[in-house]
Design a protein that fits this description.
Radius of gyration: 16 Å
Strand content: 25-35%
Number of helices: 3
CATH class: Mainly Beta
CATH superfamily: Macroglobulin (MG2) domain
Largest sheet: 5 strands, antiparallel
Length: 169
Protein backbone atom coordinates (compact mmCIF):
# COMPACT_ATOMS: atom_id res chain seq x y z
CA UNK A 1 0.00 0.00 0.00
CA UNK A 2 1.25 3.45 -0.82
CA UNK A 3 0.53 5.31 2.36
CA UNK A 4 1.32 8.90 3.13
CA UNK A 5 1.35 9.23 6.90
CA UNK A 6 1.65 12.86 7.82
CA UNK A 7 2.31 14.35 11.21
CA UNK A 8 3.17 17.80 12.45
CA UNK A 9 6.29 17.74 14.56
CA UNK A 10 6.94 21.37 15.40
CA UNK A 11 9.64 21.62 18.04
CA UNK A 12 7.92 22.63 21.30
CA UNK A 13 10.95 24.73 22.26
CA UNK A 14 10.01 27.15 19.47
CA UNK A 15 6.27 27.24 20.12
CA UNK A 16 6.47 29.08 23.45
CA UNK A 17 8.91 31.73 22.29
CA UNK A 18 7.35 35.21 22.30
CA UNK A 19 7.66 36.66 18.84
CA UNK A 20 8.61 33.35 17.22
CA UNK A 21 7.18 32.76 13.77
CA UNK A 22 4.32 30.29 13.49
CA UNK A 23 5.03 27.97 10.57
CA UNK A 24 3.25 24.81 9.51
CA UNK A 25 3.33 22.54 6.50
CA UNK A 26 0.81 19.94 5.34
CA UNK A 27 -0.52 18.45 2.11
CA UNK A 28 -3.47 19.69 0.08
CA UNK A 29 -5.37 16.53 1.03
CA UNK A 30 -4.58 16.84 4.74
CA UNK A 31 -3.18 14.13 6.94
CA UNK A 32 -3.21 10.35 6.54
CA UNK A 33 -3.82 10.14 2.80
CA UNK A 34 -2.82 7.35 0.41
CA UNK A 35 -0.76 8.06 -2.70
CA UNK A 36 0.50 5.91 -5.56
CA UNK A 37 3.72 6.16 -7.51
CA UNK A 38 3.30 9.01 -9.99
CA UNK A 39 0.83 10.96 -7.84
CA UNK A 40 1.59 14.65 -7.51
CA UNK A 41 2.10 15.88 -3.96
CA UNK A 42 0.84 19.39 -3.23
CA UNK A 43 2.17 21.06 -0.10
CA UNK A 44 0.56 23.91 1.80
CA UNK A 45 2.64 26.32 3.86
CA UNK A 46 1.21 28.61 6.53
CA UNK A 47 3.11 31.56 8.01
CA UNK A 48 1.78 34.10 10.49
CA UNK A 49 4.08 36.80 9.04
CA UNK A 50 6.39 37.36 6.08
CA UNK A 51 9.48 35.20 6.45
CA UNK A 52 12.49 33.72 4.76
CA UNK A 53 11.89 29.99 4.18
CA UNK A 54 14.08 27.00 3.46
CA UNK A 55 12.29 23.80 2.50
CA UNK A 56 14.35 20.59 2.68
CA UNK A 57 13.22 17.12 1.67
CA UNK A 58 14.85 13.80 2.57
CA UNK A 59 13.94 10.79 0.45
CA UNK A 60 13.74 7.20 1.68
CA UNK A 61 17.39 6.61 0.69
CA UNK A 62 18.49 9.50 2.93
CA UNK A 63 19.31 11.96 0.13
CA UNK A 64 18.53 15.60 0.92
CA UNK A 65 17.09 17.96 -1.66
CA UNK A 66 16.60 21.68 -1.14
CA UNK A 67 13.18 22.32 -2.65
CA UNK A 68 13.15 26.02 -1.81
CA UNK A 69 14.65 28.53 -2.29
CA UNK A 70 16.09 28.01 -5.73
CA UNK A 71 18.67 30.15 -7.44
CA UNK A 72 15.94 32.19 -9.13
CA UNK A 73 14.12 33.23 -5.93
CA UNK A 74 14.50 36.26 -3.70
CA UNK A 75 16.52 34.55 -0.97
CA UNK A 76 13.51 32.48 0.02
CA UNK A 77 11.21 35.37 1.00
CA UNK A 78 7.59 34.22 1.37
CA UNK A 79 4.59 36.39 2.27
CA UNK A 80 2.39 35.56 5.25
CA UNK A 81 -0.77 33.57 4.74
CA UNK A 82 -2.60 30.35 5.52
CA UNK A 83 -2.38 27.26 3.35
CA UNK A 84 -0.39 28.74 0.50
CA UNK A 85 0.53 26.26 -2.27
CA UNK A 86 4.20 25.49 -1.87
CA UNK A 87 6.54 25.68 -3.63
CA UNK A 88 4.86 28.65 -5.32
CA UNK A 89 3.20 27.64 -8.60
CA UNK A 90 5.12 30.26 -10.58
CA UNK A 91 8.32 28.23 -10.02
CA UNK A 92 6.98 25.39 -12.17
CA UNK A 93 8.21 22.77 -9.69
CA UNK A 94 6.18 19.56 -9.35
CA UNK A 95 6.57 17.06 -6.51
CA UNK A 96 5.77 13.55 -7.77
CA UNK A 97 5.77 10.37 -5.66
CA UNK A 98 8.54 8.10 -7.01
CA UNK A 99 11.17 5.58 -5.91
CA UNK A 100 12.85 5.13 -3.56
CA UNK A 101 9.84 4.38 -1.40
CA UNK A 102 9.64 4.26 2.38
CA UNK A 103 9.88 6.84 5.14
CA UNK A 104 10.62 10.35 3.92
CA UNK A 105 10.85 13.70 5.70
CA UNK A 106 10.25 17.33 4.90
CA UNK A 107 11.32 20.38 6.94
CA UNK A 108 10.08 23.97 6.65
CA UNK A 109 12.51 26.40 8.29
CA UNK A 110 11.29 30.00 8.66
CA UNK A 111 12.98 33.16 9.92
CA UNK A 112 12.24 36.88 10.06
CA UNK A 113 15.86 37.57 9.10
CA UNK A 114 17.58 36.24 5.98
CA UNK A 115 19.45 32.98 6.30
CA UNK A 116 23.25 33.17 5.97
CA UNK A 117 24.54 32.62 2.42
CA UNK A 118 26.26 29.38 3.51
CA UNK A 119 22.83 27.84 4.23
CA UNK A 120 21.41 28.89 0.85
CA UNK A 121 24.12 27.31 -1.31
CA UNK A 122 23.18 24.19 -3.30
CA UNK A 123 23.38 21.08 -1.14
CA UNK A 124 26.49 18.96 -1.53
CA UNK A 125 26.02 15.51 -3.10
CA UNK A 126 27.74 13.57 -0.32
CA UNK A 127 25.35 12.39 2.45
CA UNK A 128 27.68 13.25 5.34
CA UNK A 129 28.01 16.81 4.05
CA UNK A 130 24.22 16.99 3.53
CA UNK A 131 23.66 15.88 7.14
CA UNK A 132 26.17 18.50 8.33
CA UNK A 133 24.23 21.21 6.46
CA UNK A 134 20.95 20.08 8.03
CA UNK A 135 22.57 20.10 11.48
CA UNK A 136 23.97 23.59 10.86
CA UNK A 137 20.55 24.84 9.76
CA UNK A 138 18.95 23.40 12.91
CA UNK A 139 21.66 25.04 15.01
CA UNK A 140 21.09 28.41 13.30
CA UNK A 141 17.32 28.16 13.96
CA UNK A 142 18.02 27.30 17.61
CA UNK A 143 20.35 30.31 17.94
CA UNK A 144 17.62 32.55 16.45
CA UNK A 145 14.61 30.91 18.09
CA UNK A 146 13.10 34.23 19.18
CA UNK A 147 12.36 35.06 15.52
CA UNK A 148 12.61 31.66 13.80
CA UNK A 149 10.83 28.31 13.78
CA UNK A 150 10.74 24.91 12.10
CA UNK A 151 7.98 22.44 11.28
CA UNK A 152 8.33 19.02 9.72
CA UNK A 153 6.26 16.19 8.38
CA UNK A 154 7.01 12.52 7.90
CA UNK A 155 5.91 10.72 4.73
CA UNK A 156 5.60 6.97 4.19
CA UNK A 157 5.42 5.90 0.59
CA UNK A 158 5.20 2.62 -1.30
CA UNK A 159 4.97 1.74 -4.98
CA UNK A 160 1.82 -0.35 -4.53
CA UNK A 161 -1.73 0.90 -4.94
CA UNK A 162 -3.78 1.23 -1.74
CA UNK A 163 -5.79 -1.80 -0.64
CA UNK A 164 -9.48 -1.54 -1.49
CA UNK A 165 -11.71 -0.45 1.38
CA UNK A 166 -12.97 -3.70 2.99
CA UNK A 167 -16.30 -1.98 3.71
CA UNK A 168 -16.96 -1.69 -0.06
CA UNK A 169 -16.67 -5.41 -0.80
Amino acid sequence: MLLLALGMHANPAYCDQPGAIEVSITTSLGDDQSFRAGDELSLLLSLDRDAFVILLYQDAAGELVQIFPGADTDGGRVTAGDFQPFPPRNLGLRLVVAAPFGQERLWAFASETPFPAELLKPLPREKTAQRARLDRLRQWIDEHRATSAVDSLTLRTSHQAPDPDPGLQ
